[in-house]
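Justification of resources, computational component.

The compute hours requested in this renewal are based largely on the per-chain cost of generating structure records like the one below. Each record pairs the submitted sequence with a full structure-token output. That output is archived, and it is also reused by downstream analysis tasks.
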Amino acid sequence: MLKAKQYKSGVKPIWCPGCGHYSVLNAITKAFAALEQSPEQAVLVSGIGCSSRLPAYLNSYGFHGVHGRALPLATGLKVARPDLNVIALGGDGDGFSIGGNHFLHACRRNVDLVYVVMDNEVYGMTKGQASPTTPEHWQHSKLTPHGPEVRPFQPCALALAAGAGFIARGHSGDPNGLAQMLFAAVKHPGFAFVQVLSQCVTFCPEQVQWKEQVHAESVGTDNPAEAAHFLHSDDGFAKGIFYCNPRTPWPLPHDSQATDLREGFRL
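The structure output for this chain reads:
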């Protein structure tokens, strides 16, 4: 059995002081320790962004992909190697903007993997532009001096509508609670989505107030109608497991032999 700190690599994180991603890293190592996860049996797949640096900081296999493509990479890996524990990582820009279509189809496809999105409501690595989850009246970017003026995405509600079987939200200010949530997500058979409110104090200093705004909710329903009712009235700061309804992961088992596509083929 390894201790949490033994899952960290020798690479020192280069996130800004006060970034919430440090706590997410700690939560993942705690979850791995609780799972008694062998480092060589875990693979972390990421796209582009501050959050996507995380695989380098763990003593396990990792794949740093391109912008918005963490989920197709993670899906292909899990289907090819179902024996591995695959966790996809990203941020709100990476996951819900250029990667938004992949997110929808990963939810409905239900491959047995975990998707952790560190949501700080801003493009942090490219200097503070508005992202898909930025509040519509946020006025701290020179590109949108009046705010984005469009409604932000609701990631958990979107995941429910697209067919995800496990939906949760954690907070970087509660690494122990987040570790328990990630433990449950890994144990869930099928696609598990975990949104993490992870503050960016560099471009959104007001997010230090999240620790007073976050509140725990014990929804934990397997009824999609009940989950939808809660999520559509949610203030965005509830944390907990909102929906858990396991179903058989894809690809589904079949008894029939594979078809030889060369049969009947004529030039």
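The first helix runs from residue 21 to 35. Residues 19-244 form a domain with the Rossmann fold fold (CATH 3.40.50.970).
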